[in-house]
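#lab-general

N.A. 3:47 PM
ok so I finally got the sequence cleaned up, no stray characters, all 155 residues accounted for. can someone with queue access submit it? mine expired

B.Y. 3:52 PM
send it over

N.A. 3:53 PM
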Amino acid sequence: YHPFLRESRPQEMEFLRRLVLTRSRAHEYLCRGEMLRSPDIRSDTLEIDNSKISLYAGRAGDMLTQRKLKVPALQFGTWRSPEGGVAIAVSNISESDQPLEFSFDAGGYGLRDHYEVAVIDCTGRRVLMDCRSGKANVAVNVCGLDTVILEFKQL
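B.Y. 4:20 PM
back already:
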């Protein structure tokens, strides 16, 4: 971290600030947990600039190559806590809000039929729904340049 970034890249630094706060609220998953296969989550794609430095290409005089990549706007990963809860961390790397809709199969992640779905973000944790069946249809909005964690916890 360099202090000048606050002035030169305020949008990115605010994203980083919210990301750190959100991450700190899910320590049991992200630091102590086991990474799992994520459910099928789809999102819009966006085109980003990508740069690559190559030591081998540098011998010919051009070490840096640049190109455009198409990537999902929603980047995500799934973890199980040592206590058995499941969390899906979702970062929206686009500037526009993105809908997040998917079906969660609790049994496939070792949860029984009665569990709670909560949203964790930089402001705290709020319960989204109380599920009494094996599948939950999750639908939330992820604001542009923001991160949320969906928590699935046994009741």
